[in-house]
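This section describes the prediction task in plain terms. A model, or a person checking by hand, is given the sequence of a single protein chain and must write out its three-dimensional structure as a string of tokens. No templates, partner chains or ligands are provided. The sample shown here is typical of the held-out split.
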Amino acid sequence: MTRQRRKHRFLLAQCLLGAMLFAGLGVWQVERLWWKLDLIQRVDARVHASPVRAPPAARFAQLDPRDVEYRHVRATGIFLPDRQTLVDALTELGAGYWVMTPLKTRHGIILVNRGFIPKQARRGETRAPAPVTSPAAITGLLRLSEPDGRFLRPNKPEQDLWYSRDVTAIARARGLRDVGPYFIDADATANPGGYPVGGLTVIHFRNTHLIYALTWFALAGLCIFGLVLLLRPRRTDC
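The expected answer:
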């Protein structure tokens, strides 16, 4: 077998393998696209549905977190402001903190993100105990815990520096027990004095699967075009 023929066969194999690989990746991205569109539709339905009772901590383990995240829920209990935590936040209102306050309910404790306060707000004021003689009714979106912190900014409980809403770590740091493994993003119901500002949940799912699918299919098309060129009968000179 001549060197030129071996090179020809090698190119054929590369084009065939590339066409199969890129086509497979394109199909996978199409499947991911339909999954993402279905997820967006389901989450949108949950967000705008009538609120349901927040699941007790003991029952949450039986649920699929993917089916309950962003569910519109309600909870009633008594806030424990002396145990609340400020978590670093960057919102449409600027830089500041999320105010994470434990809500003591009949079925355990639920962390509630009551909303945003600006960095100018004095930390002492945000931690000041509020009257807890009457129950508070909270409505908002169920969110899953955000463990460990942000990229390059891990939570530092020993320094009381928080960069993500890690329910387990916050509960441990504040000495809370029977805490649900999720938190509630409170809705935009106004709080006395204007702060914290609730209802700032950002619901955005990055969806670039169509672009990726078109890219993979284009590469598969180029490989098929290469196959056609390589398989085309060669013209010989007379």
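For orientation: The chain has two domains: 3-44+207-231, 71-186.
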